[in-house]
Amino acid sequence: MSKTSIPEVGAINVAAPPGFDAQAIPIHQVCSDQKKISPEFLEPKALKARLQSPPQWEPEITDENRHVIAADIIARRQAAGKVTRAAVLIPLLLKEDGLSVLLTQRTNHLRDHAGQISFPGGRMDPEDQSPNETALRESHEEIGLDPRRVEIIGHLPEYLTVSGYSVTPVVGLVQPQAEYVLDEFEVADVFEVPLQFLLDPANHQVRLWESEQGGRRFYSMPYENRFIWGATAGMLRNLYHLLKV
């Protein structure tokens, strides 16, 4: 099912410098000409069936993934005794008007991905038995999501980040709760975006960042006053590729 491409030798360093403003990077392309997902696959039953019995499909390899592989970032972290495995929950809220995705805005003082929009999740603890356990534990710690409200329906391929993590996206159907209790150190805000919006290729922008080392392409999915990009957008693109088949 999964496919890993071999990166070109000498891939550029795509890690964003301090103060990097992704929203200011020019739009290179909008994916409006790509195939739309059949509406039936945006319904819980069909989406669950697709995740649990997927057809042949190819995950998308981003510039971020290529750089991590080429620079051997994860292997070097492991050699230094650092944790490299992580998991996030892609929480699909069961709403009367359709599924929505619950996302978090990270606080600005964090070392990795400060201020960015992300899924709840984090590093796997030694006590965690599986990515599912990590995703549920971290979601409870970060936003107070009750694990009993989550039905895990599948996983997406691991996503490699320039911060040195191999992240397993865990997909879950979630019964919304009245309020969320945020970890004020890590999470500045929590909000919802309709799944239909996030998986419509007309809302997928490719931005091209030019630097002295070369160019880096990354996805963005602006929604109202939120700017979704980077690894979060990359994982959503893989959900799009799985469902468009």
Structural features, described:
There is one protein chain. Strands 2, 3, 4, 5, 6, 7, 8 and 9 form an 8-stranded mixed beta sheet that branches. A 4-stranded antiparallel beta sheet has the order 1-10-11-12. 34% of the residues are buried. The longest helix has 15 residues. The protein contains 6 helices and 12 strands. With 245 residues, it is α+β, with helices and mostly antiparallel strands.
* Main sheet overview: 8 strands, mixed
N- to C-terminal distance: 13 Å
**Secondary-structure element order, N to C:** EHHHEEEEHEEEEHEEEH
Q: Which class best fits the helix and strand makeup?
A: alpha+beta
Helix amount: 10-25%
Low-confidence stretches: 1-13
Count of helical regions: 6
Indicate the mean pLDDT: 90
What's the total number of strands?
12
Overall 3D shape: globular
The Cα radius of gyration reads 17 Å
- Residue share in β-strands: 25-35%
Secondary structure: elements and pairs:
Blueprint: E1 27-30, H1 44-52, H2 63-70, H3 73-79, E2 85-95, E3 98-106, E4 117-118, E5 121-123, H4 131-143, E6 150-155, E7 159-160, E8 166-174, E9 187-194, H5 195-198, E10 205-211, E11 214-223, E12 226-229, H6 230-244
Parallel strand pairs: 2-8
Antiparallel strand pairs: 1-10, 2-3, 2-5, 3-4, 3-9, 6-8, 7-8, 10-11, 11-12
